[in-house]
Amino acid sequence: xSVKKEKGLLIVLSxxxxxxxxxxxxxxxxxxxxxxxxxxxxTTRAPRPGEEHGVHYYFIDKPAFEERIGQGAMxxxxxxxxxxxxxxxxxxxxxxxxxxxxxxxxxxxxALKIKERFPDTLLVMVxxxxxxxxxxxxxxxxxxxxxxxxxxxxxxxxxxSNLERYDYAVINEDGRAGDAADEIAAIVASEKKRTCRNKxxxxxxxxx
Length: 208
Ligand code: 5GP
Hints:
Largest sheet: 5 strands, parallel
Order of helices and strands: EHEEEHEEHEHEHHEHH
Shape: globular
Helix content: 40-55%
CATH topology of the domain at 10-39 and 100-207: Rossmann fold
Bound molecules: guanosine-5'-monophosphate
Strand order of the largest sheet: 2-7-1-8-9
Number of helices: 8
Strand content: 15-25%
CATH superfamily of the domain at 10-39 and 100-207: P-loop containing nucleotide triphosphate hydrolases
CATH class of the domain at 10-39 and 100-207: Alpha Beta
């Protein structure tokens, strides 16, 4: 029987600062390297110590970013804290065609734009167990000023107010990012079996 190659699923992972979504993404990539890949975003913000061009982000300047927007080379982009962040389209499309599930680790505005443009996208919000734990995590980092913590908490309230626009919420308990990664992999596996994502199943079945 000829089996049509299964396309990958586009997955957006969002979560407030302190949700640990970066660690969860790393666990997914470590545990399921054959099934998932991560899209590297472009940004106009300056690299932080230890960040590498092409690994953490493509660090480009504002005119170059705007040129790419004009060329339609960004799947989505958003302005966040005075900088542009965007998803280069070519990598994502190629990986999906090759059957890989592509993760975009992006904030809420970009996530909602992607969902509007590509309704098949799976939106997953990674959350801490509670708001008080989120606050404790932000304070525990010890690197943020009081004003910064207040701003991030206010922004988190807004982000979480959009929770119902996401398909799934996955709680990232302290020290349990691997469990959250397994949960997301299980969600993706069952989503890919949904009949609405396999509309040509019956045709292929009866033709073979
Ligand atoms: P940071 O500056 O801390 O690396 O990222 C700030 C925020 O931008 C995070 O919420 C991150 O998920 C989001 N972000 C990173 N890349 C993209 C992107 O390509 N598009 C959008 N819309 N947001 C992004």
